[in-house]
Amino acid sequence: MKPLFENVKAVVFDLDDTLCAYWDASKAGLKRSFELHPVEGKSPEEMVLIWGDAYREFGPTIKTSEWYNDYLHRGEPTRTEQMRRTLAKVGIKSKEHARQLSKAYARERNVALVLFEESLEVLTVLKGRFPLGLLTNGPADIQRQEVGCLGIEAYFNGVFIEGEMKKGKPFSSVFRRVSSFFEAKPEDMLMVGNSYGHDIRPAIELGWHTAWVRRPSDVPPSLDPRFAAPESRPEDGPIPDAEIGNLRELLALLAIDA
After folding, report:
1. Fewer beta carbons within 10 Å, N or C terminal of the chain?
2. b/e map 59-72, b = 16+ CB within 10 Å
3. What is the pLDDT of residues 176-212, one digit of tens each?
């Protein structure tokens, strides 16, 4: 593979579904939660899909609603509200059931959360060669918990979390904050992420280099599309420098002989 990023001076990674298998952990955690706190007349698998319906209605509204201030600090309120809405779809109005499911989901998702098999290898090779950053959206407590659970904080010179910054991707100010931290020009920065809209497009528009991670869990969808639809590039969207299916491909693109 021909090196594309020989002049890069800092590499920034997204977290969920770039370094770790978040949606796989989420699906496993949801299934286990509905096994532990079942819904009469519905299988755990059915409830996961119903959760998906509720998620696609509620999730996109959080950041423009009254939920956002709480969401920035902690994941519990919106996670429990998501479960309340899920139960409401099958005619159940029980705040206690929703709280039980929310608590179980948070626990079981963390149990199931793992890095992709090549992530530590690639981070180990890159650390020492480049300053590394982690740029992730989500509540402050949940994302810090993920980073700690995965044991990866020591690999990064800077960890940038939406909940701690009070603003997340795709806002350009967030990317400028990261490049300022590394004292680097936009053309010196490389963004590695699986979300075209949150990671890749805003980085391209600011003049960063980009590597779009396209895993089988993203394309095609590994579950009913009501749960997590794959993300594609709009026809008029700027083209990333590279599309990769495995983080190891970064090494050749960075002119590193593994």
Report:
1. C
2. eeebeeeeeeeebb
3. 999 999 999 999 999 999 999 999 999 999 999 999 9
pLDDT at 34 over 60: yes
How many Cα neighbours within 13 Å face the side chain of 220?
3
- 160 forms bridges with which residues in the sheet? 135
Burial of 5 (0-12, 13-18, 19+ CB in 10 A): buried
Question: Which residues have a Cβ under 8 Å from the Cβ of 35 and sit 6 or more positions away?
Answer: 44
List the one residue out of 183, 182, 218 whose CA is nearest residue 199. Answer: 218
Alpha carbon of 148 to those of 8, 78, 154, 155: distances in Å? 28, 22, 10, 12
Q: What is the DSSP letter of 12?
A: E
